[in-house]
Design brief:
26% of the residues lie in helices and 26% in strands. It is built from nine helices and 26 strands. It has helices at residues 44-53, 55-67, 104-122, 145-161, 178-194, 267-276, 293-300, 328-337, 414-428; strands spanning 2-7, 10-16, 28-34, 78-82, 90-96, 130-133, 170-175, 204-211, 216-223, 228-231, 238-240, 244-245, 252-253, 256-258, 264-265, 304-305, 312-313, 317-318, 325-326, 360-366, 378-385, 388-389, 400-401, 404-411, 433-437, 444-448. Strands 1-2-7-6-3-5-4 form a seven-stranded mixed beta sheet, sandwiched between helices. Strands 8-9-10 form a three-stranded antiparallel beta sheet. α3 runs parallel beside α4 (145-161) and α4 packs across α5. It has 460 residues and is α+β, with helices and mostly antiparallel strands. The two termini are 51 Å apart.
């Protein structure tokens, strides 16, 4: 664990662990949750939260959402709920939205807003002296790690330097991936050295232990201003922070390890090497003994982790276009509703939703005008759904839901008629509505999906 004591009242602790199984018990922990799905997401941290704390967390979250004003902008807000446990007592839910990581300006703006709201929310809870938070936006969203680190540390240190940390004594920066921990420690060291902070920092931390046929070697991670390097004096192994590709799983990462034979491996594959007591995962590598690594791998069943459900499998399904991997169960579940890679958003066909199949869409052209379009008629769209029962593709199969009647409006312009045709196509593909918990009522039923509509003649 790396501890950075900024003053007598506030300490930053950085280490590798699960946010739900921290080495030091905190009064609260933090996760990110997506605006459109909330706890229906059931992947990553949200799935772990639901598993760890049970259904009460989801119910408490729905109650807090119900208290918010109509048309409240949720994106970037922090919704706090009680977990029902002594520690952590509180779960801080930072509401994010899917943003293309390539859109750096929008990504940075959302992350800054989210972290500022998170830090402000902490001051409302005098009993919270310690809280754990992962590197938000870099998991399921696949956001840029370095940028996320810079934003996180900039917001936290600025908040602390301005004397706004009223009650908090410890902030735990906890990540399941070791390389993120290393990069955070490196960046903190650079910032604090530059500012000449009078801190007693340990600049060496044990990162990795390698088991060999000859003896056990210990690698130490050394921090300085320019790079983070791991070196073993006996075999001169190095940790390379330039972007490289793992020779086995083909992931492009900054934390890959160069071994004696010249192959590069990510931390996960390095763990496979250690666990299976082999020298290299590449079958025809001259570094191997007479027995091939494939034979050893089969005997020891090298497993891979699905980054969606976090379960381990002997093999994962590789997506053809982008090369990302996930388990067969997650592939079927995600691609049934939306044939899109959950990591890079590459499409693999026409998306299909879970909108009830017995709904009707009708369109008429009325003579009245919408504000700002006085010279044009109005396209009135009506959606009707009878009461029904959730199917296997819905959150709670077999549960009844009420019928729904919704009306939307478009100006009778050329663009309006084009939008009408697109909405008809989207309705045909069952994308306009879904089954979920309404943000306004907190009741599960037919709700709008991701396609915004104008539902009032006057106003939005």
């Amino acid at each position: 664990m790396n501890s950075f004591k900024l003053n007598n009242d506030f300490t930053l602790k950085v280490y590798t662990d699960s946010i739900f199984d921290c080495k030091l018990k905190c009064e609260a922990i933090t996760i990110s949750i997506f605006k459109k799905s909330f706890f229906e997401q059931k992947v990553g941290l949200v799935k772990s939260a639901a598993t760890t704390f049970g259904s009460n967390v989801e119910k408490n979250f729905a109650k807090e959402i119900k208290k918010l004003p109509k048309n409240f902008e949720l994106e970037g807000q922090c919704i706090v709920v009680e977990t029902g446990k002594k520690k952590p007592k509180y779960l801080f839910n930072i509401v994010l939205d899917f943003i293309d990581p390539k859109n750096s300006t929008k990504f940075e703006s959302l992350m800054k807003k989210s972290l500022e709201n998170f830090l402000e929310s902490l001051n409302n809870y005098s009993e919270i002296k310690s809280i754990a938070i992962p590197l938000l936006g870099t998991g399921f969203s696949s956001g840029p790690v370095n940028s996320s680190i810079n934003i996180l540390l900039d917001r936290v240190l600025d908040f602390h330097n301005k004397g706004k940390m009223i009650h908090l004594k410890e902030l735990h920066l906890v990540n399941i991936e070791e390389f993120k921990t290393q990069l955070i420690v490196k960046k903190l060291n650079e910032i604090l050295k530059k500012n000449a902070a009078p801190l007693d920092l340990k600049l060496e931390s044990l990162i990795y232990q390698k088991e060999d046929n000859i003896d056990e070697l210990e690698c130490v991670c050394k921090l300085n201003d320019n790079m983070l390097q791991k070196e073993n004096l006996q075999n001169k192994e190095k940790l390379n922070f330039d972007t490289n590709q793992c020779s086995w799983c083909k992931q492009k990462l900054k934390n890959v390890k160069l071994i004696d034979c010249g192959h590069l491996f990510c931390p996960s594959c390095c763990g496979d090497i250690k666990e299976n007591k082999i020298k290299c995962l590449i079958p025809d590598c001259s570094h191997n003994n007479d027995r091939t690594n494939i034979d050893v791998a089969k005997e020891n069943k090298i497993e891979k982790i699905c980054e969606i459900c976090c379960e381990t499998y002997d093999s994962l399904k590789v997506l053809e276009k982008c090369g990302h991997e996930l388990c067969t169960n997650c592939f079927k579940r995600l691609f049934e509703s939306k044939p899109q890679c959950p990591f890079c958003y590459t499409f693999y066909g026409i998306p299909k939703g879970i909108q009830p199949s017995d709904g009707k869409m009708s369109v008429i052209n009325e003579k009245f005008s919408l504000p700002g379009y006085e010279e044009f008629s109005t396209i009135v769209i009506n959606y009707r759904f009878p009461p029904g029962r959730q199917t296997e593709n819905h959150p709670n199969p077999g549960k009844n839901y009420s019928g729904s009647n919704r009306t939307a409006y478009l100006p009778g312009t050329e663009e309006g008629f084009k939008a009408q045709k697109l909405l008809e196509k989207a309705f045909e593909n069952r994308l306009i509505f879904t089954i979920g918990i309404s943000v306004t009522t907190g009741i599960e039923g037919i709700t709008w999906n991701d396609i915004h509509h104008k539902t009032q003649i006057r106003g939005p």
